[in-house]
Write a structure and sequence with these properties.
Layout (H helix, E strand, L loop, with lengths): L1 H10 L7 H11 L4 H17 L4 H7 L8 H16 L1 H17 L4 E4 L10 E4 L4 H13 L1 H12 L1
Antiparallel strand pairs: 1-2
Helix pairs in contact: 1-3, 3-5, 5-6, 6-8
């Protein structure tokens, strides 16, 4: 992976103030595909030179406590970097997840557009018996305001 990192950095003429620190953390802690690695390096460059952020602080703020494999850590790391790159998106997603968690259960699945690029919310309901009908409809009715908040967040 070290060669891939160096190749991408050379192709784009990227030079980081904390280059060795970045290489060490990427190599030792996470696994990324070539396209993910390219995206990570582009985001890191933008964070350091355009947003003038300290990349060491960014790395240290990302907690891998619940993530197990290097591949999972890589996906998690990329997701966290995207939050730094798009702070408004991060704030919106946090609100969205708050409302989704109030409604979510094993019989109700809510799906929103990827990257919030769309204007609809998909609700999938699993009904196994007559009692489920009343329980699910009651839960949806009780969470009417949460559903409205979710739609307004998606449509922003």
């Amino acid at each position: 992976m070290k060669e891939k990192i160096e190749k991408i950095m050379q192709n784009y003429n990227y030079n980081f103030d904390s280059e060795e620190y970045i290489k060490k953390n990427i190599l030792e802690n996470i696994y990324l595909t070539y396209s993910e690695l390219k995206e990570v390096i582009e985001i890191l460059y933008e964070l350091e030179y355009i947003k003038e952020m300290d990349l060491k602080e960014v790395f240290e703020s990302i907690k891998f406590d619940t993530v197990k494999s290097k591949k999972e850590k890589g996906s998690y790391f990329l997701k966290e970097l995207l939050y730094y790159k798009y702070p408004l998106y991060q704030k919106t997603m946090k609100k969205l997840k708050f409302h989704l968690n109030k409604i979510k259960d094993s019989k109700i699945k809510l799906t929103y557009p990827q990257n919030l690029e769309g204007d609809n919310l998909k609700i999938e309901i699993t009904i196994k018996n007559e009692k489920d009908v009343d329980n699910i409809l009651d839960k949806l009715l009780k969470n009417r305001d949460n559903l409205k908040d979710i739609i307004s967040l998606i449509k922003k």
